[in-house]
Design brief:
- By secondary structure, this protein is mostly helical.
- The chain has one domain (about 5-60).
- It is about 75% helix and about 0% strand.
- The protein has three helices and no strands.
- The chain has helices spanning about 5-20, 25-40, 45-60.
- About 0% of the residues are buried.
Length: about 60
């Protein structure tokens, strides 16, 4: 059975769990999210996207 979830949904769930159960403060999560948005507008964005895709692909290949 294949389940397809957007990565942003998974990361949002991880952030919610971290805030709710691990004691991470909300302002820290907001700063990290803002850093991600600003990072997306730099020259590093293609490298980050490529690395993320490679990581997700390697996890998906292990479960096929």
């Amino acid at each position: 059975m294949t389940v397809s979830l957007p990565l942003v949904l998974v990361l949002g769930a991880v952030a919610w769990i971290a805030i709710k159960f691990m004691g991470v403060r909300l302002w820290i999560a907001v700063v990290i999210a803002l850093f991600g948005f600003w990072l997306a507008h730099t020259g590093l964005a293609p490298s980050v996207e490529s690395g993320t895709r490679s990581g997700v692909d390697s996890v998906n290949e292990q479960h096929d």
